[in-house]
Write a structure and sequence with these properties.
It is globular, with a radius of gyration of 29 Å. It is 62% helix and 0% strand. It starts with 27 loop residues before the first helix and ends with a helix. It is mainly alpha-helical. The chain has three domains: 139 residues, Cyclin-like (Cyclin A, domain 1); 94 residues, Cyclin-like (Cyclin A, domain 1); 74 residues, no CATH class.
């Protein structure tokens, strides 16, 4: 992914208010504390859950479901995006220290919905967007049972079960995340970058970058890159999408001015691009990442298989009512046809059986992706 083209050098000397002077380098102590929670992609393949026997795909699916649970509860509670981001970071950090797999000996592992509920409760207090305990528990019960109109009161068993789960496991969450509650928000850093380059009024660019950060909260990006890198990646992708040129300053590109590596920005963008490509499209929503020809090819292949079956049935019916001499002639033609096919495949260097098997596997894999 190429960097966004820089504008003319004359734009780099634009006078800025005192509040928008060149950003300072991140505090060394805070940056070092944040790096303690940054992992490599290889380390993500050796989380406690995976070590205990869970597959990497299943572990990522549990993470996605847990963060989606946080988002649904947050919408019903009308929580800010900052609170939801904080809860998502707590959730991902917890799973880097604790396992989702039940062991034969010892305490039973928490369900990913239970972890998400505790993270929401803690995030509302940290971000000072507190809600009453009853409101949180009622919404969690409704989301967990996928019934937004569920009647929940203090007399139901589900209410007390979820309430006790949250209160009893808050200490376990704090211990797992080492009481590190302060989280640098990429949203604020992104807005500061846009404001520094006087692009905060650009609604399209601002919304594109904001969407990138919100989507990244549903992934493991928060434990792969620092918040400043995520914010810069959001600005980078938004500038490319909106075709906005961010000016150089003093002979340095904008990412160096913001104290971010271009290599890390591209890694974050490529990671999110891979997530977008793998995300299944909901029914009734047009998939802008998959060409329409895929569906047409799939329909054509199914129709061709149907026609081939009909032809076989017709040929079998004719063979039953034909004379013995006609059957022998037909068999001779079929053998000649098979021999000609063998000669063709031999000259091409590809076996018909192998190619057919490969095509069947591709069709089967495509159908499996659609069903999922």
């Amino acid at each position: 992914m190429a960097p966004p083209p820089s504008s003319q050098s004359s734009n780099s000397n634009v006078s800025r208010p005192a509040a928008l002077h060149r950003p300072k380098a991140p505090n060394a102590v805070l940056a070092e504390a944040e790096l303690q929670w940054i992992y490599t992609e290889e380390e993500l393949l050796h989380t406690p859950s995976i070590v205990d026997g869970m597959s990497a795909e299943q572990e990522r699916e549990m993470r996605s479901k847990g963060i989606n649970f946080i988002g649904q509860v947050g919408v019903m509670l009308k929580l800010s995006q900052m609170t939801l981001t904080t809860a998502a970071v707590y959730f991902n950090r917890f799973l880097m220290r604790r396992s989702l797999v039940n062991k034969k000996e010892g305490a039973k592992a928490l369900h990913h919905y239970q972890i998400a509920a505790v993270c929401i409760f803690l995030a509302t207090k940290v971000e000072e967007t507190c809600r009453k305990m009853k409101e949180i528990v009622v919404v969690i019960c409704r989301v967990a049972q996928k019934n937004p109109n569920l009647i929940v009161d203090e007399q139901t068993k589900d209410y007390w079960r979820w309430r006790d789960t949250i209160l009893m496991n808050e200490d376990h969450l704090l211990e797992a995340i080492a009481f590190d509650l302060t989280i640098d928000k990429p949203h604020k850093l992104m807005f500061d970058m846009l404001q520094y380059y006087r692009e905060s009024h650009n609604k399209e660019l601002r919304n594109s970058a904001w969407t990138f950060i919100n989507d990244s909260a549903h992934t493991q990006l928060c434990i792969l890159f620092p918040a400043r890198t995520i914010a810069a990646a959001a600005v980078y992708c938004g500038a490319k999408y909106c075709r906005v040129d961010l000016p150089d300053e003093g002979g340095k590109p904008w990412w160096e001015v913001q104290h971010v590596s271009l290599r890390e920005i591209r890694r974050a963008c490529n990671y999110m691009a891979g997530i977008y490509e793998k995300t299944p499209v909901k029914e009734g929503v047009e998939n802008i990442y998959t060409p329409e020809s895929v569906d047409m090819e799939r329909e054509g292949s199914s129709q061709s298989v149907k026609r081939a079956r009909e032809d076989d049935e017709v040929q079998n019916g004719d063979a039953e009512h034909s004379k013995p001499g006609d059957k022998e002639a037909a068999n001779g033609k079929e053998e000649a046809g098979h021999q000609s096919k063998k000669v063709k495949t031999g000259t091409n260097g590809v076996g018909s059986g192998a190619s057919a098997t490969k095509e069947d596997e591709e069709v089967a894999s495509e159908e499996g992706e659609v069903e999922e």
